[in-house]
């Protein structure tokens, strides 16, 4: 999944009735594995999916961040839980290979040469190389549109009741 991660996070936030967060937080938490791994890939010219697409790295990052935030700013602990949820959703709906998901327990990561974001987007959205993953993205955006349409209708009804 590429663009669908933010739709996925928003849909789960609404379905689980979680505290709404601002869009910047939602975006960063939803794309954290890609932000880190793609940056590493571009800088070091290696594969786009890497260490931060591992459940192990996610769990260690969550535990460390939670421990630090608990000492420094305990009022922000709930955001660490939310970030961990969005991180986990990212991993689930990226459908990574098991060797990536459970790194380092299943062996070393295979590096597939250079990483090109444009090539990745072209393969994904133009050539439809990953139709299963792309269809999950379409489903989440469809649910997002339904939720937003219902919200807008409810807001319009409230507006008409009060004016
Ligand atoms: Zn990813």
Question: Which helices and strands, and how do they pair?
Answer:
Layout (H helix, E strand, L loop, with lengths): L3 H12 L7 H22 L10 H18 L4 H18 L3 H4 L15 H10 L4 H32 L1
The chain binds zinc ion (ZN).
The site of zinc ion has 5 residues, from helix 2 and helix 4.
Protein name: Metal-dependent hydrolase
Organism: Candidatus Magnetominusculus xianensis
Keywords: Membrane, Transmembrane, Transmembrane helix
Give a brief rundown of this model.
This is Metal-dependent hydrolase. The chain is mainly alpha-helical.
Bound molecules: zinc ion
Q: Quaternary state, please? A: single chain
Report the end-to-end length measured between terminal Cα atoms.
43 Å
What order do the SSEs take from the amino end to the carboxyl end, as H and E? Answer: HHHHHHH
Biggest sheet statistics = none
Compute the average pLDDT: 90
Gyration radius over CA: 18 Å
Tell me the overall shape.
globular
Low-confidence stretches: none
Class of secondary structure makeup: mainly alpha
Residue share in helix? over 70%
Number of helices: 7
| Total separate domains | 1
What does this structure look like?
- This protein is mostly helical.
- The chain has one domain.
- It is built from 7 helices and no strands.
- Helix 1 packs antiparallel against helix 2, helix 1 crosses helix 7 and helix 3 packs antiparallel against helix 4.
- The longest helix has 32 residues.
- The model has no long low-confidence stretch (mean pLDDT 90).
- Zinc ion binds next to helix 2 and helix 4.
- It comes from Candidatus Magnetominusculus xianensis.
- Keywords: Membrane, Transmembrane, Transmembrane helix.
């Amino acid at each position: 999944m590429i663009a669908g991660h933010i739709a996925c996070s928003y849909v789960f936030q609404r379905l689980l009735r979680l505290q709404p967060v601002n869009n910047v937080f939602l975006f960063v938490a939803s794309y954290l594995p890609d932000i880190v791994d793609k940056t590493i890939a571009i800088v070091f010219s290696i594969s786009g999916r890497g260490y931060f697409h591992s459940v192990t790295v996610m769990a260690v990052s969550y535990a460390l961040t939670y421990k630090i935030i608990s000492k420094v700013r305990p009022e922000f602990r709930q955001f660490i839980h939310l970030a961990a949820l969005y991180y986990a959703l990212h991993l689930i709906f990226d459908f990574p290979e098991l060797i990536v998901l459970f790194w380092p327990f299943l062996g070393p990561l295979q590096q597939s040469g250079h990483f090109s974001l444009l090539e990745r987007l072209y393969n994904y959205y133009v050539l439809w190389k990953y139709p299963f993953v792309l269809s999950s993205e379409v489903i989440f955006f469809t649910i997002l549109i339904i939720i937003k349409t219902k919200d807008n209708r409810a807001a319009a009804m409230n507006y008409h009741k009060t004016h």
